[in-house]
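Comment thread on ticket #2218

A.B. wrote:
> Attaching the input chain for the structure job we discussed in standup.
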Amino acid sequence: MIKYLIDTSAVHRFFQAPDLYPAWRTVLTRGEVGIIPPVEYEICFSARKASDRTRLLGQLGKLFTETIPGPAAYQAGRDMQETLTTKGAHRSCGPVDLLLAGTAHVENLAVLHVDKDYATLARFWPSLRQVRMDTERPL
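C.D. wrote:
> Ran it. Output below, let me know if you need it in another format.
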């Protein structure tokens, strides 16, 4: 059962040094972490050739469950951006961050990240659950 949606920042951090995150490795191997396609796109953007992309997609597929954002997730992202804009903090979250946060909110999941943008968003959108992989333990 998925409990988290992972952000690009956490994927990169985990791939760089998986041994630093044993508690999170356990969560990953239990299949508790989902990924949305736009995060996959961001990860695969770093591929230098087709074989790199294939390797990355294989790694992502082994660790994360694909989660497809529905219409309600897009609306939640719009609402979050509106809230951030009224607070003057709308430049803190990009489109993929908002879609990920909107999906997590709608699906009652926590965002797993290493990115201050989600802490900023959660300050103004308190119902958003978010966890920093580098400083917090699994929920």
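A.B. wrote:
> Thanks. Noting for the ticket: The longest strand covers residues 110-113.
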